[in-house]
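Section 5.1 Outputs to date
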Amino acid sequence: MKQLFNFNHLHYLDEFLLFNSNDYQTIKDQISHYLCPHQFDVKAVTDLNTRLNGFSFGQSALYDLKYSAPVAITLDEDSPYYLFRITLEGQCKVEYAQNKVVQSVGIMTVTHPHTKSRIMTNHHCRNIILKLSKQEVETQLFKMLGYRSTEAVIFNSGMSCTDEGLSAIVETLNYLCHAYYNIQNWSFISESFTAYLIELILLKVPNNYSLKLNERRQHVLPNYMKKAQKYIQQHLRANITLAELSQFCAVSTRTLQKGFNQYFQQTPIEYIRDLRVELVHQALLNSHEYETVSDILLENGIQSFGHFSTIYKKRYGCLPSQTLKMRVA
């Protein structure tokens, strides 16, 4: 990419120094803490200075990372984060699966959660790194598609992102830095901003859902499907039967089932179940300290706690009680 991008507001990252060190073990420990677990090797007999600036917002974070010597980093497979990397200075090579990308100034690459990756930098390499949780990316994809998909999001790397797409992402990161530095009570709007940022990335960075997302944006649901969505949203905490849903939409149950399979690739029951799981998840995250898991499940129309917990753990990797403990902590 030859285009020069406007990084005017990224200088606010200079105000948020996380660490600056010449000690090998300190560098390794701090990078593992802030970004993800990894193996770290210096590729030249020279002093290594590493500086990391940045801040977190929700489960996400934005970093400015600079090495003063060539290094090789191998990311472990247990990381639950996407790392979007834009090079500002120097050069690095990124390898994952069967992909190899030489990343120079203005190029963006992506390393994926639960995927072993290797990054090799040259002398004085500096990258802006956007860290997004797999869970938040999947939640936003669910909202955009209208149904839950079991296939992980895989982004293309390197030259596949257009200048227009990367420019839009850079401008949004500029705004993020400006807002975080200047806006009081930023935390109150960071959740909605994160959702917007992930939506932008899903639309602008080519991935295995790009075609479906573009079709979804252009596709107009028939009226009976819109009525079904509205009814489900209004009665999500109640016991919704297929018969009453069909009656409300003024179509046969067979037509309704075919509509959900055609437009959402799910049965009506699966669609309702996914919305309820998401509803409970958000309720757990935003609960008060005095609320119990049982309270929250009952308030949201869940009667079979054991069965629901199994579904919840399959979706989020933990039990509802563990999510509640994290929120209270």
